[in-house]
């Protein structure tokens, strides 16, 4: 079973669930429902394909759950290691472009200067598990 | 000539001992002979010869552009190169020809370097073996070395024994194999979790990951925007410093590059290490670490101590969570970055035309392999509204703790950290594939990914051969933007350990001429 799979030999220190309100399920509950799978597939526009992919996701989640043991009370999230600096913003002047032809060449389907897409606003059909 | 340092070859070119065209042709012929390594996806023969011609004209006029003029280089296939197919080893981008050069590629071309080709990698740089690309796995040149074969008591010409070839490590395995097999002097890799340092250690090369923000990522097809850095693979530390000097600096096209003026990276020759403080993180003493790597690590620490440096044990308390944190942040950013591949503007497109959603889904199913799809799905899970706080934000908080661990250690007076790069030497492909990509990545990135979380510079230096005759490397980690200091110490260390040259001459005729040149009187380095 995936719960027994030895992911890494690292042992996390004894879990402390302090200061962490959890809505997620305890590990080992096999909590990926069919609805969740469908939801993810539509969201990612990538399908699972087979049972192995689902198992892989379950393992990934179990692995990620190890972070619960870390006390992050009053710790701010780190978005960028360069957070102490100002991002460079260049002036809002057009300095390059006019290369529509070059860019259109990489597309499989173009009409004049348009990329052609199939009709939108059609939901994906409901997929079976 | 092919085993020399950049400065030596550059001097030889200036003195006319060899021409850029001759150098180019030697490398091209080696590329053909080492095709079985599968290091290159695209070989840009015509372009390289044309560049060689132009370089030759410059040398004749005495107007060489610098140390890289006329020098063959290779670039990992996730850097955009104008007019040359850039695939990221994926079906999604097969046939994609970028209309522009990545900034780092442009900088190297502006220095007169000869682009030999684009090297193989794991698909979209996701992996630690260079085994999961759409063009097949890359073979480690050391599989065919005299040093390895002798230990296994194999005759060098025994082709039947090829079935047990070794992996290069990843994901910049093609770049590593290209440099290790002497087909070029420098190769660009990318480093998100150790993808430059890991193959460097397995292939006996210097693998440099610069500080985040020092080198432009414009044109590097992104994996994790907050951690990606272009990496440099060379045979010598000095060469890596020279190339870094050419690549570092603010790029208006990449607003995550810092605007500090960049000082040149000429490395002073360190003679006295007594003022240095080397930190050994105790949490890196993992049970999975092979005895040989552990012994070499210990020997290296002793070397510094015997030369007068202060060597102390330090603690990075959140180390055991680092790989988990990396896993969440990496998959989340990947899920976001891979969303651009929808088949509309570039890349693969399926034949369905029913609806945009169906087209996107089918295109992405056909274009991506299991590894990429798996990471996209995991990432999307962590980014769902109900999970965002508990996984993504949580990981970002842990990231701060990890980055702070490093800051605390450096603030306590440590100059560099010394750690292993990999758990052990390169393994045979057949053994490597027994575990899946995610398991392997989690294992192999263990020493390298924390550096990416913190944005620090790190370099893997080859130290010695294992009992099996395979390279083992050790990693130095420096303070952010102290790349020059890091490389200075690495260069001192490199000189002390005298890592042996790979001996491929019994396997390949061409290599005997490489070794013959080594015995020639040294090239004059006077300008």
From TrEMBL, chain A:
Q: Where in the cell is it found?
A: Mitochondrion
- Any one GO cellular component localisation term in the record: glutamyl-tRNA(Gln) amidotransferase complex
Q: Does the keyword Disulfide bond apply?
A: no
Q: Which GO terms describe its biological process?
A: glutaminyl-tRNAGln biosynthesis via transamidation; mitochondrial translation; regulation of translational fidelity
Q: What is its EC number?
A: 6.3.5.-
The chemistry this enzyme catalyses reads: L-glutamyl-tRNA(Gln) + L-glutamine + ATP + H2O = L-glutaminyl-tRNA(Gln) + L-glutamate + ADP + phosphate + H(+)
Q: Give the InterPro entries listed for this entry.
A: Asp/Glu-ADT_sf_sub_c (IPR036113), GatC (IPR003837)
Source species, domain of life: Eukaryota
Question: A single GO molecular function, which one?
Answer: glutaminyl-tRNA synthase (glutamine-hydrolyzing) activity
The yes or no answer to whether the keyword Nucleotide-binding is present is yes
Supply the alphabetized keyword list. ATP-binding, Ligase, Mitochondrion, Nucleotide-binding, Protein biosynthesis
Pfam family for this entry, one: GatC
Question: What's the family?
Answer: Belongs to the GatC family.
Q: Which HAMAP family does the protein's record reference?
A: GatC (MF_00122)
The record's note on quaternary structure and interaction partners says:
Subunit of the heterotrimeric GatCAB amidotransferase (AdT) complex, composed of A (QRSL1), B (GATB) and C (GATC) subunits.
| Functional description taken from the UniProt entry | Allows the formation of correctly charged Gln-tRNA(Gln) through the transamidation of misacylated Glu-tRNA(Gln) in the mitochondria. The reaction takes place in the presence of glutamine and ATP through an activated gamma-phospho-Glu-tRNA(Gln).
Q: What is this protein called?
A: Glutamyl-tRNA(Gln) amidotransferase subunit C, mitochondrial
* Name of encoding gene: GATC
């Amino acid at each position: 079973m995936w719960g027994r799979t030895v992911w890494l030999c690292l042992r996390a220190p004894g879990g402390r669930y302090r200061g962490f309100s959890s809505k997620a399920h305890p590990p080992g509950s096999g909590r990926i429902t069919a609805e969740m799978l469908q939801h993810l597939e539509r969201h990612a526009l990538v399908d699972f394909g087979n049972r192995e992919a689902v198992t892989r996701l379950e393992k990934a989640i179990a692995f990620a759950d190890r972070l619960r043991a870390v006390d992050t009370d009053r710790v701010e999230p780190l978005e960028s290691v360069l957070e102490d600096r100002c991002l460079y913003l260049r002036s809002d002047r057009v300095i390059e472009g006019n290369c529509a032809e070059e860019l259109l060449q990489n597309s499989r389907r173009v009409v004049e200067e348009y990329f052609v897409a199939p009709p939108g606003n059609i939901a994906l059909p409901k997929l079976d598990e | 000539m092919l085993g020399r340092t950049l400065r030596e070859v550059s001097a030889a070119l200036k003195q006319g001992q060899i021409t850029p065209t001759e150098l180019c042709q030697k490398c091209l012929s080696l590329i053909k002979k080492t095709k079985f390594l599968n290091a290159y996806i695209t070989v840009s023969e015509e372009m390289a010869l044309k560049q060689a011609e132009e370089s030759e004209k410059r040398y004749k006029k005495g107007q060489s552009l610098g140390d890289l003029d006329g020098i063959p280089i290779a670039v990992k296939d996730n850097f955009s190169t104008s007019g040359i197919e850039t695939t990221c080893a994926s079906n999604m981008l097969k046939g994609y020809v970028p209309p522009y050069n990545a900034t780092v590629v442009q900088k190297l071309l502006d220095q007169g370097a000869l682009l030999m080709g684009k090297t193989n990698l794991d698909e979209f740089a996701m992996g630690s073996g260079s085994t999961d690309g759409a063009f097949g796995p890359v073979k480690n040149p050391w599989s065919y070395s005299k040093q390895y074969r002798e230990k296994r008591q194999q005759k060098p010409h025994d082709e039947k024994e090829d079935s047990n070839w070794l992996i290069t490590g990843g994901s910049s395995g093609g770049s590593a194999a290209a440099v290790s097999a002497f087909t070029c002097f420098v190769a660009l890799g990318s480093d998100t979790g150790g993808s430059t340092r890991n193959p460097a250690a397995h292939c006996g090369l210097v693998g440099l990951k610069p500080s985040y923000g020092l080198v432009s990522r414009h044109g590097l097809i992104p994996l994790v925007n907050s951690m990606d850095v272009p990496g440099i693979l060379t045979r010598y530390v000095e060469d890596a410093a020279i190339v870094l000097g050419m690549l570092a600096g603010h790029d208006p096209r990449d607003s995550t590059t810092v605007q500090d003026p960049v000082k040149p990276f000429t490395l002073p020759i360190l003679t006295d290490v007594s003022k240095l403080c080397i930190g050994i993180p105790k949490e890196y003493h993992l049970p999975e670490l092979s005895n040989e790597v552990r012994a070499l690590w210990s020997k290296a620490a002793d070397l510094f101590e015997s030369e007068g440096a202060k060597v102390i044990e330090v603690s990075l308390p959140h180390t055991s969570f680092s790989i988990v944190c990396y896993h969440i942040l990496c998959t989340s950013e990947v899920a976001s970055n891979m969303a651009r591949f929808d088949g509309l503007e570039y890349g693969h497109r399926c034949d369905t035309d029913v609806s945009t959603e169906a087209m996107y889904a089918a295109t992405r199913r056909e274009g991506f392999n299991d590894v990429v799809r798996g990471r996209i799905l995991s990432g999307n899970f962590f980014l769902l509204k109900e999970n965002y706080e508990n996984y993504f934000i949580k990981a970002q908080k842990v990231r701060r703790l990890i980055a702070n661990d490093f800051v605390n250690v450096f603030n306590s007076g440590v100059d560099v950290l010394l750690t292993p790069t990999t758990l052990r030497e390169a393994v045979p492909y057949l053994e490597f594939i027994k575990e899946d990509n995610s398991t392997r990545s989690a294992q192999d990135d263990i020493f390298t990914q924390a550096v990416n979380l913190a944005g620090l510079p790190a370099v893997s230096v080859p130290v010695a051969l294992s009992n099996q005759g395979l390279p083992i490397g050790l990693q130095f980690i420096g303070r952010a933007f102290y790349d020059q200091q890091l490389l200075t110490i690495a260069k001192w260390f490199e000189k002390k350990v005298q890592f042996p040259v790979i001996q491929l001459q019994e396997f390949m005729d061409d290599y005997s001429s490489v070794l013959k040149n080594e015995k020639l009187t040294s090239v004059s380095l006077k300008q």
